[in-house]
C-alpha cells in the first residue's frame, strides 16, 4: 500500500470469479392455439461472486426452442441468435404453435 512517500507491505485475499446465471421463461398456456403465434418471456439474472451484475455482459446469447407433438412426428427446433437482454425488462420470442403440441422445451446459452 502506498500513500505519498509512505509505503507499507500488506496482504489481501484474491477471490476467483464465480458466475451464477439464471434464466426464467414464462408462457401463458392460453396462447397455445394451433397455427397462432405464442410468446415466451425471458428474464435473465447474472451474479458475479454473489453480487448482482448487469446482464449486458452476456454475449452470443442463443435460445433453442423445441416442440414435440403427441403423435410422434419429428421434433421441431428453432434457434434465436444474438438476443440482447436488459436488466429491468423481459425479452420476448415468438413461435407458431404446431398441431398436436404436447411439449415445449427451451435451452439458453450465453458467454460472459
Secondary structure class reads: mainly beta
Assembly status: single chain
Strand content: over 45%
- CATH topology (level 3) name: Immunoglobulin-like
Count up the domains: 1
Shape designation: elongated
Cα end-to-end separation: 32 Å
- Poorly predicted ranges (pLDDT <50, ≥5 residues)? none
Structure description:
With 112 residues, this protein is mainly β. The chain has a single domain (17-111), classed as Immunoglobulin-like (Sandwich), CATH 2.60.40. The protein has strands at 2-3, 6-7, 19-26, 37-48, 51-53, 59-69, 76-80, 91-96, 101-111. The strands form three sheets. Strands 3, 4, 5 and 8 form a four-stranded antiparallel sheet that branches. Strands 7-6-9 form a three-stranded antiparallel sheet, with no helix packed on it. A hairpin with a 2-residue loop joins strand 1 and strand 2 (6-7). The protein is elongated, with a radius of gyration of 21 Å. The two termini are 32 Å apart. The relative contact order is 0.27.
Give the topology, please.
Layout: E1 2-3, E2 6-7, E3 19-26, E4 37-48, E5 51-53, E6 59-69, E7 76-80, E8 91-96, E9 101-111
Antiparallel strand pairs: 1-2, 3-4, 4-5, 4-8, 6-7, 6-9
Main features:
single chain; 112 residues; mainly beta; Immunoglobulin-like; 4-stranded antiparallel beta sheet; 3-stranded antiparallel beta sheet; 54% strand; elongated
Amino acid at each position: 500500500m502506498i500513500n505519498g512517500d509512505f509505503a507499507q507491505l500488506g496482504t489481501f485475499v484474491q477471490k476467483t470469479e464465480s458466475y451464477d446465471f439464471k434464466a426464467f421463461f414464462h408462457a401463458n398456456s392460453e396462447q397455445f392455439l394451433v397455427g397462432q403465434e405464442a410468446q415466451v418471456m425471458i428474464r435473465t439474472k447474472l451474479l458475479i461472486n454473489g453480487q448482482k451484475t448487469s446482464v449486458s455482459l452476456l454475449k452470443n446469447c442463443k435460445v433453442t426452442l423445441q416442440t414435440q407433438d403427441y403423435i410422434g412426428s419429428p421434433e421441431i427446433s428453432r434457434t434465436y441468435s444474438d438476443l440482447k437482454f436488459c436488466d429491468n425488462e423481459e425479452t420476448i420470442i415468438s413461435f407458431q404453435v404446431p398441431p398436436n403440441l404436447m411439449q415445449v422445451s427451451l435451452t439458453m446459452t450465453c458467454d460472459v
